[in-house]
C-alpha cells in the first residue's frame, strides 16, 4: 500500500517509521543520474547531498513526513546547485501535493481553520495561499477588455477604499488598486497599455469625478455609462431626507404613524403586499409632502425600467418638471446632479448596462473580510479578491 502512495520520480520507498503522533517515510534515490534544471542535459549526481525532511499528506489521523537526500549537481553548462524534484518545490518544506491540499482549503476557509485542519502555522498556510494564487492569476497583458465596470469597495472604516475593475463580458475582476483617486485608475490604464485602453468601448461607473477624469484621459473612444443603481440610490437618499425632515416637524400622532416606515417607503410599490400597501397609503394621505416625495421616487424608478431610449429621456424631462414644481430641496439637488451627468445617464438608456454584477463580487469580498476579521495585509486581501472573483488560469492543479 505504501509503495503505491509514495511513488516519486527518481525515488523509491525504503522505510516507514511510526513515532506515535507522526509517521516518517524514508525515500531512496534510484539513479545516479538526473537532468540539469538549466540545460536539460542528463548528468551524474555528485556524492555530496544533504538530508531533508518535508511535510506530506496525513496518513489517517497522523501527520506524515518524507525523509530523503537531495543531491548536488555540477553541470558543464555552468549550473551549480541542487537537483530539482517533481514532488517538492525548491526551498519548500512540504510536498507539492500537500501544498495543493492547503491551497484548496484556503479557497473556502479562514486561515485559522486551515491551520487547524492541516496542522501548520498561519504563516506557512498564508505563504502557500499567496504563492499558488499568484501562479494562477491571469496576467493583465493577456486580457483585452472592451467593456469594463469600475466600482469601489471599503476595506476599512474611515473612507479607506479599493478600486475594482471588472471585465463586463467575462464577468471577472481584472484589476484592484488602492484608493479611488484619478491616479489610482491611471495605474490600471498604464498597466493595460495605451493600445488596449483605446479599444475600450464602454465604461460603467458611479458619478465620481476622479474616475471620469482618468477614463476620459486614457480611453479616447469610450462611452461612459453611469450605473442606474447609483442614481436611484441618490433618489432614495433624497426621499429619506424628506422623511427625516417631516418626522422632525410632525406631531405625536403623525410620528407614531411614520415610525418604522423607512424601508416600506424605500421599497418599490409593486413589491409591497396588500397589508403594506394599506399602511403606506394611510401614511401618504396624512402627509402630502411625503406623498409627493414618494411619487418622485417611484416615477424615476419606473423611468429606469424603460428600455426605449426616446421614451425614457422624455419621461426624465417630465420628471425634472415635477421636481421643480415640488420645490423639495433634496430632490432639486439630485435633479441638478442628474443634469450635470446627463450624458452618462442617457448612455445607460442606450446600452442598458449596470454594475449589478459587482454587487455579487462585493458580497464575496465581504465574506473574505469576515473570514479574516479584516485584512492587515492589504496585498494579501487583493490576492484573495482575485482568487474569489478574478480570471484564473485553467489547470488540473493550482500550479
Can you tell me about this structure?
The protein is α/β, with parallel strands linked by helices. It folds into four domains: 1-93, no CATH class; 94-136; 145-227 and 355-389, Ribonuclease H-like superfamily/Ribonuclease H (Nucleotidyltransferase, domain 5); 228-351. It is 50% helix and 21% strand. It has helices spanning 2-5, 96-108, 111-118, 122-136, 182-192, 194-198, 209-218, 228-249, 252-258, 262-266, 274-286, 288-304, 309-326, 329-340, 342-351, 356-372, 378-389, and strands at residues 11-18, 22-29, 33-35, 42-44, 49-59, 62-74, 80-82, 147-156, 160-167, 172-178, 202-205, 223-226. The strands form three sheets. Strands 1, 2, 5, 6 and 7 form a five-stranded mixed β-sheet that branches. Strands 10-9-8-11-12 form a five-stranded mixed β-sheet, with helices on both faces. Helix 2 (96-108) packs across helix 4, helix 5 packs parallel to helix 7 (209-218) and helix 16 packs across helix 17. The radius of gyration is 30 Å and the shape is elongated. The protein starts with a helix and ends in a 10-residue tail after the last helix.
Chain-wise SSE layout:
Blueprint: H1 2-5, E1 11-18, E2 22-29, E3 33-35, E4 42-44, E5 49-59, E6 62-74, E7 80-82, H2 96-108, H3 111-118, H4 122-136, E8 147-156, E9 160-167, E10 172-178, H5 182-192, H6 194-198, E11 202-205, H7 209-218, E12 223-226, H8 228-249, H9 252-258, H10 262-266, H11 274-286, H12 288-304, H13 309-326, H14 329-340, H15 342-351, H16 356-372, H17 378-389
Parallel strand pairs: 2-6, 8-11, 11-12
Antiparallel strand pairs: 1-2, 3-4, 5-6, 6-7, 8-9, 9-10
Amino acid at each position: 500500500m505504501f509503495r503505491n502512495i509514495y511513488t516519486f520520480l527518481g525515488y523509491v520507498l525504503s522505510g516507514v517509521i511510526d513515532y506515535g503522533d507522526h509517521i516518517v517515510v524514508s525515500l531512496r534515490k534510484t539513479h545516479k543520474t538526473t537532468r540539469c534544471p538549466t540545460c536539460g542535459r542528463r548528468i551524474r549526481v555528485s556524492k555530496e547531498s544533504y538530508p531533508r525532511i518535508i511535510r506530506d499528506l496525513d496518513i489517517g489521523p497522523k501527520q506524515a513526513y518524507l525523509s530523503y537526500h537531495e543531491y548536488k549537481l555540477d553541470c558543464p553548462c555552468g549550473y551549480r546547485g541542487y537537483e530539482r524534484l517533481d514532488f517538492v518545490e525548491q526551498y519548500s518544506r512540504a510536498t507539492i501535493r500537500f501544498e495543493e491540499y492547503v491551497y484548496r482549503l484556503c479557497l473556502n476557509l479562514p486561515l485559522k481553520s486551515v491551520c487547524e485542519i492541516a496542522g501548520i502555522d498561519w504563516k506557512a498556510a498564508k505563504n502557500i495561499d499567496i504563492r499558488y494564487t499568484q501562479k494562477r492569476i491571469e496576467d493583465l497583458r493577456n486580457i483585452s477588455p472592451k467593456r469594463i465596470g469600475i466600482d469601489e469597495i471599503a476595506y476599512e472604516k474611515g473612507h479607506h477604499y479599493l478600486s475594482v475593475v471588472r471585465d463586463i463580458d467575462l464577468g471577472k475582476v481584472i484589476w484592484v488598486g488602492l484608493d479611488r483617486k484619478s491616479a489610482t485608475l491611471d495605474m490600471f490604464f498604464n498597466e493595460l497599455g495605451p493600445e488596449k485602453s483605446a479599444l475600450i468601448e464602454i465604461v460603467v461607473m458611479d458619478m465620481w469625478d476622479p474616475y471620469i477624469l482618468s477614463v476620459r484621459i486614457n480611453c479616447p473612444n469610450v462611452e461612459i455609462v453611469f450605473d442606474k443603481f447609483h442614481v436611484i440610490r441618490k433618489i432614495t437618499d433624497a426621499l429619506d431626507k424628506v422623511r427625516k425632515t417631516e418626522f422632525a416637524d410632525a406631531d405625536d400622532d403623525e410620528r407614531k404613524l411614520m415610525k418604522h416606515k423607512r424601508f416600506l417607503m424605500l421599497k418599490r410599490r409593486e413589491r409591497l403586499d396588500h397589508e403594506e400597501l394599506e399602511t403606506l397609503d394611510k401614511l401618504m394621505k396624512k402627509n402630502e409632502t411625503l406623498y409627493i416625495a414618494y411619487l418622485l421616487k417611484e416615477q424615476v424608478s419606473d423611468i429606469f425600467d424603460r428600455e426605449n431610449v426616446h421614451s425614457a429621456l422624455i419621461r426624465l424631462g417630465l420628471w425634472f418638471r415635477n421636481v421643480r414644481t415640488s420645490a423639495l430641496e433634496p430632490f432639486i439637488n439630485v435633479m441638478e446632479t442628474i443634469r450635470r451627468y446627463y450624458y452618462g445617464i442617457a448612455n445607460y438608456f442606450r446600452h442598458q448596462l449596470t454594475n449589478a454584477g459587482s454587487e455579487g463580487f462585493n458580497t464575496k469580498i465581504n465574506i473574505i473580510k469576515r473570514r479574516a476579521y479584516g485584512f492587515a495585509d492589504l496585498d494579501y486581501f487583493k490576492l484573495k479578491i482575485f482568487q474569489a472573483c478574478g480570471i484564473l488560469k485553467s489547470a488540473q492543479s493550482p500550479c
